[in-house]
Design a protein that fits this description.
252 residues; alpha/beta; Rossmann fold; seven-stranded parallel sheet; 50% helix; globular; oxidoreductase; NAD(P)-bd_dom_sf; Short-chain dehydrogenase
Length: 252
């Protein structure tokens, strides 16, 4: 509880230099958390996110690490421990590159490589922060998934399959870590404004908006609000769940 008394939980957001990660970092900071903006190569963008948080009166620092690299991950967590204390909230958002191809076109190296790297990153990040959370008897872990894990779309087999594995991994981790006061949940967005137009174009965006009950595509802030709920104390008795943030594109 020391960190709360000194000014907010320590939250590490991976892949936070832009998009959903940046929106999450800013929102958590606005709610009193001390935020670590992780990035792999986009130092200037990460610094901009940190500067925007500080200018709004929040506390933040940038930390470089490739989340697939174990020594880099452990070094980052050690750096955070020295600067802010133990990580109490982990939002694992970092995007692992993937091929957009049909099953006929994709190779095993492309599909299996994405699956291996997705799970490796989640595994390494979780392993690195759980000891500190266990010591404190408190932790919030939130993984970013995708609606594609339950609603397949042409060309997205690599992303959908790897995120489905991540969702199941989250349930197992939630079951084991619950007795330690650590919750583990997944936020699974549908198409998001900042990426869908860049990757698929305006026509694709309009078509998906028309298929969505709320009539629009999600913004990074829509996703960030769901993440912030799981990252805070209001979700203290919720674990092992997946929150679909898709505006009614898929309803279970």
């Amino acid at each position: 509880m020391t960190n709360v008394q000194q000014g907010g939980r320590v939250a590490l957001v991976t892949g936070a230099s832009r998009g959903i990660g940046a929106a999450v970092a800013r929102l958590l900071a606005s709610r009193g958390m001390r935020v670590v903006v992780n990035y792999r190569s986009s130092r200037d963008e990460a610094d901009d996110v940190v500067a925007s948080i500080r200018s709004a009166g929040g506390r933040a620092m940038a930390a470089q690490a490739d989340v697939r690299d174990e020594p880099a991950v452990l070094g980052m967590v050690e750096q955070i421990r020295g600067a802010m204390g133990e990580v109490e909230v982990l939002v694992h958002n970092a995007l692992i590159p993937y091929a957009i191809k049909s099953f006929d076109e994709i190779t095993w190296d492309e599909l299996g490589g994405k699956l291996e790297q997705e799970m490796r990153a989640a595994f390494l990040m979780t392993k690195a922060v759980v000891p500190g959370m266990t010591t404190r008897g408190y932790g919030r872990i939130v993984y970013l998934g995708t609606v594609l894990s339950r609603r397949p779309r042409a060309g997205m087999i690599a992303l959908g399959t790897s995120k489905a594995a991540l969702s199941q991994f989250a349930r197992f981790v939630a079951q084991e870590l619950g007795p330690r006061g650590i919750t583990v949940n997944v936020v699974a967005p549908g198409p998001v404004e900042t990426t869908i137009t860049d990757v698929f174009g305006q026509e694709f965006k309009q078509r998906h908006a028309a298929q969505t009950a709320l009539g629009r595509i999600a913004t990074p802030d829509d996703v960030a609000r769901a993440v912030a709920f799981y990252a805070g104390d209001d979700s203290g008795f919720i674990t092992g769940t997946t929150a679909p943030v898709n505006g009614g594109l898929a309803m279970d």
